[in-house]
């Protein structure tokens, strides 16, 4: 219950209710504020909602809330007329760009003088920002959590360059967060409610990659039965994230350079140039300088791409992030309600801290998932860690660091073979076993002919 003086009504009349709602929603900071009517139609959509969800007011206003935000989570998230007030309800919001954002939702229903439900005011916050654990000791930035000075530096760079149009090159091993960082940069930029699209240049054959990036016209090659709009056109106005850019074949490097310089390209089999306005963010686990020296990467393109380089350190070099991310991931699984972990056995924690994490944060996610799948009870125990934790880390430390140059090929091929055997035909499981993304795993298999 809040209190207001008798003069408040007069003041409200003069100041206007709408500017007041706008000002209050601005003060909610990272929380997305919106108002729906009794039919769930969105009447008010704050700037912070645009920013958090990457959905513009012109798309959201007048639409039923459930067609704009696809949510699931604890209980029925829409039953507001009955519930009247909802406080910090955990839910996942599935965004149009395919990202799932774990959030907390607070909402209040409104009723007219006759007690008829007229709608609700809702505030949705990203989970990482309202958990008690996040108080003060770490940074939380568009889903990126860290206590590490180098990661904090990376976040500071993102904040500084987001407003500009410079190209950014993110360097880091597989699973260190290159894509989440690229997405954060997009969300901070003036392009945030235009598309953010991502492609892994290592995961497709050169001809498929060209088609995927630049599109093709009907009849461009056997099988091109219809026109295909490429990612550059689909990302128009927004951002295109080119992961593993060092794997781009030389002929496509020339085409990419042209888009960067002239902002246009010719689709495969086409004869007319298409103009686009796309911000490029590229990432690689390799040193582009080394690739240039080896003649595999164009020097002019390297300079175009790495105007602002950002380095993401591997997880083994930022041990203080292990506990932070571990608990963040445990909280996310706890919300699903099947098991609740509120302690980690000290011997398990010791191993988790000592482990070399070749697959970085993605591997940490897999470890938590594994523990939730195989274990029971409120404590995460040593026996719930995946098999590799039961071997001496001498062996684990010798594992190739996923995606790193210089990894010993013999060991790496062995790891891939072992992962394939463990996965028993399931490639997702095999990639997980090797601590790699599916794309990286696919690339390594191809490399060793496995
Ligand atoms: N600092 C972080 N805080 C929270 N989640 C993180 C962080 N870093 C990475 N993640 C999560 O870890 C997973 C892997 O991250 P991401 O896909 O961005 O890595 P990547 O470097 O692009 O990997 P790859 O090169 O193999 O594609 C994602 O689910 C991402 O959300």
TrEMBL record:
Annotated GO MF terms: ATP binding; sequence-specific DNA binding
Boundaries of every PAS domain copy: 17-63
GO biological process: regulation of DNA-templated transcription
CDD domains the UniProt entry points to: AAA, PAS
Annotated keywords: ATP-binding, DNA-binding, Nucleotide-binding, Transcription, Transcription regulation
Domain Sigma-54 factor interaction as annotated: residue spans: 144-373
SUPFAM superfamilies associated with the record: Homeodomain-like (SSF46689), P-loop containing nucleoside triphosphate hydrolases (SSF52540), PYP-like sensor domain (PAS domain) (SSF55785)
UniProt name for this protein: Sigma-54-dependent Fis family transcriptional regulator
